[in-house]
Give the backbone structure.
Amino acid sequence: MKEKEQKRSYSTECYNEMKLRLPSLSVNEGMARAAVAAFCAQLDPTPSELADIKCAVSEAVTNCIVHAYRDTVGIIYISVKLCRGGLVRIEIKDKGCGIEDVELARTPLYTTDSAGERSGMGFTVMESFCDKVRVFSGCKKGTTVTLFKFVKGKE
Ligand SMILES: Nc1ncnc2c1ncn2[C@@H]1O[C@H](COP(=O)(O)OP(=O)(O)O)[C@@H](O)[C@H]1O
Ligand SMILES: [Mg+2]
């Protein structure tokens, strides 16, 4: 019952929406993070809530740049929906290489980076800073990460 209730609350009506498309250049990571934060500012979030959103978005967008479109440039599709009850739903989608095993990829410290530059903590960071993280992926089709965050605001 509790699970059902939670499911319902994650799918409440959206009343405002923003869409953004950016090439997967590392210079655009900061742009994506700042644009999402600016859009969410209308909820009057606390500095901590805003920092959580920025951090989670940064991890998801970085993954598109360094993993999905590694050695190439593709498009990152970002959608932010503000829903009733203070729910923010952020979708970050790529049409890159995809993830073979999503469950494994979400394991803390798991990384396919052999250069030793990545910590393998991106998904763990997203999970700890958001209320729910959904990942859909298909090999050579791409990946969609959806971040759900309830913003209470300063009131
Ligand atoms: N958008 C993506 N496209 C392809 N692979 C991804 C994507 N996001 C994550 N991955 C895979 O999941 C692994 C874990 O991601 P993450 O937790 O962010 O750690 P890190 O980026 O430090 O490796 C990555 O090493 C990569 O193999
Ligand atoms: Mg990462």
